[in-house]
Structure formats: structure tokens, C-alpha cells
Amino acid sequence: VQGSSPASFDGYLLAMACQQGAQHIPGRVRLVEYQDRPVVHTAQESYTADLLVLATGVNSNSPLSPAFGYQRPATELMAQDEVLRPPSWPADEVRVFFRQPPGIVFGALIPKGQYVNISLYKRGLTQDSISEFLDANGLDTQFEPEMSRLCGCNPRIAVGSARTYFGDRWVAVGDAAVSRLYKDGNGSAFFTAQRAMYAALRLGISRTAFQKGYAFLCRQISIDNFYGRLLFWGWDLALRSPFLLNTWKKALQQEANLSPEKRIHMRILWGMFTGDEFYKDLFMLFFHRSAVHGLWQGLRRRQA
Ligand SMILES: Cc1cc2nc3c(=O)[nH]c(=O)nc-3n(C[C@H](O)[C@H](O)[C@H](O)COP(=O)(O)OP(=O)(O)OC[C@H]3O[C@@H](n4cnc5c(N)ncnc54)[C@H](O)[C@@H]3O)c2cc1C
Question: Is this structure's pTM higher than 0.85?
């Protein structure tokens, strides 16, 4: 917060960078060419750069010329909206829905001050997806969507890794390189940028330097995302199969009597939807003796 009015997160970070000596040149980069080193063209000016950091996310086309060989990560669409928070809606409670309407991966309602942010990720998004989601979960009367909607958009999220994301005198960071599947994109943006700058300062700005000092972090995120994909595939399967879903539910209910550190299935679910733990660790937890035992007990209870 700056003074009494709230500042955007991006604005806050930009102000901090400028305080540290960065020079902000507002303008859209139209093209970046490579002539011994990167040359950045805006509508007004051209700049020759010693090192180019591509941090353009995945919601616009890359300005890099084909000479860079860069291919941005695969993306998927989300639906996003902001509505006025009804007085009855708690200001400190995040709610996540998984079952309705069909095709949904998750829908989240996150209170932000006097607004509620609605984020929906589902297969086959249409213009009406947010309304259908509210309807299907009995939330339509509370939100009166047509009356109180403030903004709506269909941003893209990165669901893969970029190809050729660094070279001599250039490196891509954040969503433009790789980010954790469905989670903590700001964290990935921070860690990739931090690692890339560490490599640049300690090892140099050549392709080899980034290969040595940066690529492994992106590979780690990418491998972890593979386990994330397996977990979400399993979750999707469970949602479609009443048998699997009930077994899992029973296992979760059984855990309620255990101390928090022993609630393995709860930990897996919490981790999947908060990003608190690596997907690989969560995936491995499924094979933990007590997780298998919990499922077995869940299966027996279901049959009882
Ligand atoms: C609906 C939604 C909800 C999300 N919620 C969360 C969350 O709760 N927590 C979380 O951690 N992450 C969340 N994320 C992910 C997070 O927003 C991204 O992972 C993160 O913003 C990536 O940061 P970035 O700097 O790489 O890219 P971006 O934040 O996308 O920034 C890229 C910037 O580059 C600018 N740009 C692009 N092209 C050009 C050009 N040619 N010239 C000049 N400027 C250009 C863009 O205008 C933009 O300002 C969410 C994403 C979406 C879509």
C-alpha cells in the first residue's frame, strides 16, 4: 500500500526497482533482433542491449525475432472475473469447487477487500462459463452476476515450458520460460528471475553460462510439473468415478480423527490446490504405507 490508496503488486515492484536505480521506459517492444547483441525496437526508439531479459509472460506474442529460436510455453485459457462481495460473503474465506459444471478442473472464489475474485479453469471455456459455474454451484443468487460484475477476461496460463529460452546475451524468465503447473506463478517468476540473474552475475551472459547456472532450475520445475500433471489426472479420474471418489472421501473422513501431521490424503489435496509442496513429494506420498492403508480402509467402509 502506498499512502492511503492501494497500489497494484506490479506497480509496487516497479517502484522498488526504480528506487534501486532501474530506468523505466514505458512503451511496447515491437521487435527484438539479434545483431551481435540484442537490439530492442519500440515504435519510437531502438536500444542495443548487453543482456536481454525476456519477461513478457504468455499473454502476448513474443517480440523476439525467429533468429532467437524461442518458442513460448504451451498455454490454456482461464476465465476470470471480479464481482462486488455480497455482505453475507465472508471476507477471509477462500472457497474452491471441483465438481460442477462438467469439465471443470477447479473454480475458486477469493475475497479481495470489497470484491470477490472468481477464477475458473475448465475444459471448453465459453463466454458464459462464469455464469454457468455460479449457477451450477447455487451461487448465482448471491452474486447476481449480470448486475455486479466489474471486469471479465480470459487470460492464458502457462502449462508447459518454453523451448530455447536462453542464448548468448539473452534469457527468458517467469511465465515466458516456465512456471509451476496451475500454482504460484509469481513464485516461479521470482525464482527463475533470481536464478537467471545469479547466473549472469556469477557465470556470465553466454549460452553456456545460462546452461550451467540457470537451465537446471527450469528443468526441475518442468519435471515437478510432470508429477503435477499425474496428480491432476488422478484427481480428474476420481471426479468422474463415483467409486474412486467415495473411496477417497472415506479415506479423508477417516483421517479427521488423526493428528494433523498424519493426515496424508488431506496433505496431498491441500498441497495440490495451494502449491505448498512439490508435486513430486505429494505424488510419492500416495505410495506411503499409511496412505495406502487409508485408501484400503476407505474401500472397506464404502462397502460396509
Ligand atoms: C487468472 C489468473 C490468476 C492467477 N493467480 C495467481 C495467484 O494467485 N498466485 C500466483 O502466484 N500466480 C497467479 N497467477 C500466475 C501469475 O499471474 C503469473 O505466473 C505471473 O504473473 C508471471 O509473471 P511474469 O512476470 O512472467 O509475466 P506477466 O505477469 O504476465 O508480465 C508480463 C508483462 O510483460 C508485458 N509485456 C508483454 N509483451 C510486451 C511487449 N512486447 N513489450 C512490453 N511489455 C510487454 C505485459 O504487459 C506484462 O506486464 C495467475 C494467473 C492467472 C491468469
Answer: yes
